[in-house]
Amino acid sequence: MKIFVSLSFVIILVLFSGGVGFAAPTINSVSGSLYHGNSVIISGIAFGSKTPAAPLIWDDFEWGSDSDNIEDGDWTNYHDDNPVEIDTDQKYGQGTRSSYNACSKEYLGDDHNQFGMAYQYFTESDEIYLTYRWRWSKEPGATGKMFTKLARVTAPGGVYSPAPNFNDSYWYGLQYSMHYHDGIETNKEYIGYKSILPPDNWNKIENYWKGSDAGVANGTYQVWNNLTLIWDNQSVITRRNGITDGLNSVFTPHNAVNPTVLGEDWYFWVDDFYLDNTSARIEIGDNSVWANCTHREIQIPSAWLDTSITITANQGSFADGENVYVFVVDADGNVSNSYGPITIGSGEKGDDTTPPGDVTDLTKQVGDGQVVLEWTNPTDSDFKGTMIRYRTDGTYPANNSDGIEVCNKTTPPGASDTYTITGLLNGTTYYFSAFTYDQDGNYSKAAHISATPYANVYTKIFGDISGADFPQTCKDTYLNAGEAGVNYSSNSEFLNTYTWPINTAANRIVMKWDLSALPQDTIIQEATLSLYMHTYSGDGNYEITAHKIITHNPDISSCTWNTYNGSNSWTGGANGGEQDIASAESSTIVDKTSGYKNWNITQMVQEWVDNSSTNFGLMLNSDTTAASDSNRYFRPTEYLSQDQRPVLTIKYCGSDISKVPSEPTGLTVIGE
């Protein structure tokens, strides 16, 4: 399977970086079972950023069948008469295939290079990190020698020799490597070493190249063979005078140059080919100390934001049951702490495909350039964390890689949680999606909420309670099917909800709120209706829904079950207005504990502010799924104690408002 941006295995790294290049990355937690292709989430700090998130090239050659031409993928053969193919005889890690070619010398004295290699273009870059697995072998009994060029990376203008470029070369029998820096004969390095790339072994090759200023020794070239740093020059000319190009093409190492013995064959395999424009990467290793690892495997990112990284797992040749440690390397080459040990293959892929439930009680608080979100985690036993993302184009993020991530929090199932998003633009509406996920990386569909930060946010209290900003703004009554012609607006004890007979509303509360003090351009952030419940009977949990009244504008002082103004019937007749209400905007389960009960009526209050002519009030409907004689009684605005009267709390953005002061008395006119 060839992967360029894959979401089949995800590692998410959450960070709050205090600055680039000042602190090494730190991993705080890892969640999910670690096995090839599964989702894992890593949280920490100072991981930095990476663009694009995916590597420029990633190929494990699993896309082909045995003997398929490599050109069936995204590669092009350098010589069609000696093409690179897909091979199933040798494979690395979890795959079943690799790329392969064989080279030989057909007659003595021929110095022809057997360029059995393929190339691919990528986005030009002034920085390259390259790693791959390379295996070579010779036919049994072969006595000759050969020279092979490992992966070659070059600049625009051609695929083989334009400057700058770099490649490693390996002489079997002479045991040294040759590294070209800027593409001219006078600027190549010869490094002597013993045979550290043994035959019949999947050798790990790594190169890091950073372009210098033209003619200035401030470039970098580093080479690692099987995790050993064999060349480290961080003050080298990698671009000669007059050269400013980056690199944009790469050759695979499938070639033999000048084999010395007639007819002897040399075989080359390449797998897990990874090329990127930065050294920022994630690897898993066999030791908790990076330098002490004898085995490491590159992981494949598909999303890398300032606060998260999503990668596709590459188990490589780690076997199920082995313990590994996770490392993050940032763009400056700083290596994180290790996280582990984690047991490879500790879960079976596909065992759990059910996501946890969504968060509940998702609320917002807005401020100057910020939004505070609060929620309750689901109670699923395998719940691991909550990821919150946003968009500003009027739509909510659709999945866990859509939009911009603002946080990824791992807290216990059922716990209350909160997060403050800062640095937002006042007046811009942000559309948030909260995705929950479990240990196996299954994500929920998401809960949604939108919020608009403002510099000036005010909270005002409406109602006849002590300390209210706007008293004398509430009128209320209730409708009673048992006495269908009676108006109860003067009742100073009760606002009733009642179910009778079973599953049937026999009472409904009607309320009107005078919001004329709010300017028409006011943005309502939250509006909460609070009623004090004092008497109850029947079912322990009683659902009361809040509805905006439409069609007819009731007169609180005269409306009844039969009429909306004492003389004219509700739509559909004497039915307590059931056809004159919109669908429920808010629903509250009222238990048998006395005290204030709340309904969120933000939407209808915003609509009333936008167009006051639509303010026909609201209706609280009795539970239509309750047992007969179940009920809840509330205090009306006429109740004797101010501490139990209805309250409407409105949090809004705009200009501050206050009551018009009373006219002064006792003034004396002077000068007349």
Please provide a written account of the structure.
- With 672 residues, this protein is mainly beta.
- Helices cover 1% and strands 41% of the residues.
- The strands form ten sheets. Strands 4, 6, 7, 10, 15, 16, 17 and 20 form an eight-stranded antiparallel sheet that branches. A seven-stranded antiparallel sheet has the order 5-9-18-11-12-13-14, with no helix packed on it. Strands 34, 36, 38, 41, 43 and 44 form a six-stranded antiparallel sheet that branches.
- The longest helix has 9 residues.
- 44% of the residues are buried.
- The N terminus and C terminus are likely disordered.
Characteristic terms for this protein:
8-stranded antiparallel sheet, disordered N terminus, 672 residues, 7-stranded antiparallel sheet, 41% strand, 44 strands, 1% helix
Shape: elongated
Give me the count of strands: 44
Largest sheet: 8 strands, antiparallel
- Determine the number of helices (DSSP H or I, runs of at least 4 residues): 1
Q: How many whole angstroms does the radius of gyration measure? A: 36 Å
Low-pLDDT segments: 1-21, 107-112, 660-672
Strand content: 35-45%
> How many angstroms does the end-to-end distance come to?
98 Å
Share in helix: under 10%
Rounded average pLDDT? 85
Helix/strand class:
mainly beta
Outline of the structure:
This protein has 672 residues and is mainly β. It is 1% helix and 41% strand.
